[in-house]
Amino acid sequence: MKDLIFFEKTIALLSFLIGTALLSIYLYFGNPNTIKTVGLYFVITAFIINSLLFFINLIGIIIDNKNRVELIKTCGIMLLNIPIAILYLYMIISIIFSPKF
Prior knowledge:
The chain has one domain (about 1-95). The chain starts with a helix and ends in a 5-residue tail after the last helix. Helix content is about 85%, strand content about 0%. By secondary structure, the protein is mainly alpha-helical. It is elongated and about 60 Å long.
């Protein structure tokens, strides 16, 4: 179970770092379509992987009494990516739909 917890925390961190890198590249190069496409595929893939791991973690919370607190903490870490992703999405939408003078 400890390996699963470490793996889930690693995936959550990698999702955050890759998402931040893609946003940084997007902002630096100014609205490139390639980064939009890569970012869209990344968000879809990250959502699927993180959702699967989150539900596996929930099952672990129900089954494993010994590591329950650590599994709950891991759920919290994984859930932290949601408001960050919403903030990044808001930033990109604001840039795309801002008036161009």
